[in-house]
Specification:
The protein is an alpha/beta fold. It has helices at residues 41-47, 53-56, 121-126, 129-141, 158-169, 183-188, 202-205, 219-225, 246-252, 265-276, 293-301; strands at 2-6, 16-19, 29-39, 62-63, 67-75, 87-91, 104-108, 112-114, 149-152, 173-178, 193-196, 209-214, 228-236, 255-258, 284-289, 308-312. The longest helix has 13 residues, at 129-141.
C-alpha cells in the first residue's frame, strides 16, 4: 500500500510517498480502506519533530495522522461491532501511533463509529480529532449546561467551529473570538456574539463567563482567567495552563486545566448522531489529494484555516 512517511523531522519536503506492507488487523481491530483523512495542527507539530514525533518513530520512519473515514476491508476475529463493507470513521490511537496517512489503516474497533449515511467521507474525516476535542472538553470536562455563557477562542478554526455548534446545542450562550473576516461565519454557526481579536482585547468586552475553551495558549490563557465567574472553568487544549498562573486561578476561584483529546468510539457515536441529524456540520475550507499532502500541511501551518483541511484518497 502507499503511505506517507517522514524519515526525519522538518519541512513538508520530508513527507514522502512510500510502499509499505498493508497492516494485518489484530483480533480487536478492523482494517480500514481509507477514503479521506483529516489534517490537524498536531500533525504539523509532529512533522516538525515536536508533539508526538518520538512516539511515532519506527525503523521505517514515522507515518503521521489519526483521522480517517473509509470502508472496513477486514476484521479481527474478536471484532463484534463492525463487518466487512461497513463505512466507519474515527480518530485512531490518539495519543499514540495512528498511521493514518496511508491507503489502509488498522484501528481498534473501540475507536470507531459507523459513518452516518447523511454525510460524505470527507465530512466524516473532518469530524474526528477536532470534533472529539470540542465534545470531550465541553461535555466531559466542563459539563456545559443550558443558560451558561461559553467563550470559544479561535472560533473559526477546526476545534472552534465545532465547539460553537456544540455549545449552542447544549443550550449555552456562545461568544467567539475571530477576525472580522470570520464574523459572519461564526454567527452562522450559532455564536451569539463575535469579538474581533484584532481590534479588541476580549477581556475588556466580555465578563462573567462560565466556560472558556482555549486552543491558543500563552497570553490568551492568562487573560482568559479574568473573564470567568468564580467557579468557572478554563480548559486549554494546548497546554496553556502553566504553574505561574496558579495564584491567579486561586484568587479568581476558578478551575483551570489542560486537556488532551483521546480516542473514543463511544464519543464518536455521539458525534455520529449529531452529524446524522444535521445538528453538527463540518466546514471544509480546503480539500487536497493524497499527493498534495505537503500543500495540506502548509495550509494548516498558516494558522488561518476556516474549519477543516481534508485529504481524499478516492
Amino acid at each position: 500500500m502507499k503511505a506517507i512517511v517522514i524519515q526525519e523531522p522538518g519541512g513538508t519536503e520530508n513527507l514522502q510517498v512510500q510502499e509499505l506492507l498493508t497492516p494485518t488487523p489484530a483480533p480487536n481491530e478492523v482494517l480500514i480502506e481509507v477514503v479521506a483523512l483529516s489534517i490537524n495542527p498536531v500533525d504539523v507539530k509532529t512533522r516538525k519533530g515536536g508533539s508526538l514525533y518520538e512516539k511515532l518513530k519506527t525503523e521505517v520512519g514515522a507515518v503521521l495522522g489519526w483521522d480517517v473515514s473509509g470502508r472496513v476491508a477486514a476484521v479481527g476475529n474478536e471484532v463484534s461491532r463492525f463487518a466487512v463493507g461497513d463505512e466507519v470513521f474515527g480518530m485512531v490511537n490518539f495519543p499514540g501511533n495512528g498511521k493514518a496517512y496511508a491507503e489502509y489503516v488498522a484501528a481498534p474497533e473501540t475507536h470507531l463509529a459507523k459513518k452516518p449515511s447523511a454525510i460524505s467521507h470527507t465530512e466524516a474525516a473532518a469530524a474526528t480529532l477536532a470534533a472529539l476535542t470540542a465534545w470531550q472538553v465541553l461535555v466531559h470536562e466542563a459539563n456545559v449546561q443550558r443558560g451558561q455563557r461559553v467563550l470559544v477562542h479561535a472560533a473559526a478554526g477546526g476545534v472552534g467551529h465545532f465547539a460553537i455548534q456544540m455549545a449552542k446545542h447544549l443550550g449555552a450562550t456562545v461568544i467567539g473570538t475571530a477576525s472580522a473576516a470570520n464574523e459572519a461565519f461564526i454567527l452562522s454557526l450559532g455564536a451569539n456574539e463575535h469579538i474581533d481579536y484584532t481590534r479588541h482585547n476580549f477581556e475588556e468586552v466580555v465578563q462573567a463567563v462560565d466556560v472558556v475553551l482555549d486552543p491558543i495558549g500563552g497570553e490568551v490563557t492568562r487573560r482568559s482567567v479574568g473573564v470567568l465567574k468564580p467557579g468557572g472553568v478554563l480548559i486549554s487544549i494546548v497546554g496553556g495552563v502553566k504553574d505561574y498562573l496558579q495564584p491567579l486561578i486561586d484568587e479568581k476561584g476558578i478551575r483551570a486545566s489542560n486537556y488532551l483529546v483521546h480516542s473514543s468510539g463511544e464519543d464518536m457515536e455521539q458525534l455520529a448522531q449529531l452529524l446524522d441529524t444535521g445538528v453538527l456540520k463540518p466546514v471544509i475550507s480546503h480539500q487536497y489529494s493524497f499527493d498534495q499532502i505537503a500543500a495540506a500541511h502548509q495550509q494548516v501551518e498558516s494558522t488561518h484555516t476556516r474549519g477543516k483541511v481534508v485529504v481524499t484518497l478516492h
